[in-house]
Amino acid sequence: MGDPATAVNPSDMIAAEPNALLPILLEFCMICITVTPTSRTLVKADLLNAARHGDIIELCLDHFVNEPDVKDLITAVDKPMIVSCRRPQDGGKWKGTEQERLLLLRQAIVAGPAYIELDLDIADQIPRFGKTQRVISFTRLDRPETDIDGVFDAAANAKADIVKFAWPTPTLDAAWPLLAAVSQKRTLPVVGLGLGQAEITFSLLGMKYGSPWIYAALEQGMEAYPGQATVFDLKDIYHSDGITPKTAFVAVAGFGESQTVTTKVLNAGFQHLGGNVRCLPIELGDLRQLKKMLDVLKIRAIIVQGAHGQSLLELAEHVDKHDRQSGYLNLLLKRDDGWHGYNTLWRSSLKAVEAELQPIGKTLATQNVMVIGNGGMAQSMVHAITQRQGLVSVCGPDDKRAQHTAQVNNCRFVPFQNLYETLSDIVILADPQISSGTRHGQINPSLFRPNMTVLDVSNLPIENSLMQEARDRGSKVISSANIYMDQLNGQFKAVTGKDLPESAYVAGLAE
Questions:
Q1: pLDDT tens across 416-459, in order?
Q2: Alpha-carbon span 433 to 249, nearest angstrom
Q3: Which of 4, 221, 338, 383 could form a disulfide with 13 if both were Cys (CB 3.0 to 4.6 A apart)?
Q4: Which run of H or E residues covers position 56?
Q5: Could you tell me the domains of the chain?
């Protein structure tokens, strides 16, 4: 097949045209900041703030409570402005009639903004006027579009100057056709907007692979779509100012608070070394296609925080026997002979526990250790303790899964209802789903006792609220931050060959 942008299957796209995503050497990718004001009184302050941080401003008229004076607003700042007014079916907030919306758009184009955004199906009802360029937009909220060429041709026939595509990008698979759409050489420029939390994946890739601009919200609470990153996220977390066609990406699997902290720390470390490397957050999607997409994007490392480590086992061709037995990976590196998988979590955790026991003359072989959780992290920690002949038990809200982990590791299984009757010297929380409470599947803080040692590896470096409960009851708590720093340093060194500087931790862990 000729054009990867029309493909439904990412595998087909990659196999058919592996050079489809070669960087287009633009001077830079602009940032378009969306402003979604409801008040005519405060809107100018928002526009001035957006002008300080972005290259283009999108003024979303559909959020206003009362009709604004567009002419007055577009002359308030010296940055080019896109005027839009989206319907609910396109993700907007417009509450009036369609005739009223069309009238507002006609009035807006007469005001002379740099750009006017028009939905493809109504573009022929808004004639070209003056020097205003027409951004013909196609949005769908259910899934990626498959007929990109057909939509592009229709937009071109509607006298587009720029074509815009927007659809959900929850995984790398879903972002792929959108990235292909903006990266291909066409007769008209194409911009894209991923919808949802994972839109940041498309935005960062778009900056490298030729998008004329990407979108960002001015601040939290002013997103054009739920989950949209702010311009401060782009600059402070992802260091977007330095992304160029030559930027190399290191993938960070998953989205969440722990992944954001990891991204901040690693990006600060990359910046300290002076290299043009950035973290790219990705939701994995179909692992069968992931290897091919990573190859096209030239991504040679994946950092894992959280529960994805178990599923990534099948991605790695080469894994140390102990790491494979642990059932969990948190680092994958692409080498000449394929993907190599590693588990730095169990080693860092083991080091921290033994450092706690050594001053009092104890070893894991003399301790009753309870690992609480279901999934890859719990199995990883059970494996770690068995390496030191620890007396390990495993317990989780799902008894069947916990029993399977016990069987695989030849250790004791404790039904969840018997957790509080079991003697434990050390308790390890190893499941991000664990929470404090009295309902089934939750942990009652009465579990913790004085002189018990407790550590939490479930969502490093974010600490479970149960850890404070353990402190309040006199338990010895091992710092989650120390375990996190040790394992992340190992990951960083494996990727770069250098130690992660302490300043990177400070930058990443700062509020």
A1: 999 999 999 999 999 999 999 988 889 999 999 998 999 999 99
A2: 29
A3: 4
A4: strand 56-60
A5: 4-14+26-230 (3.20.20.70), 271-343+486-509 (3.40.50.10860), 347-478 (3.40.50.720)
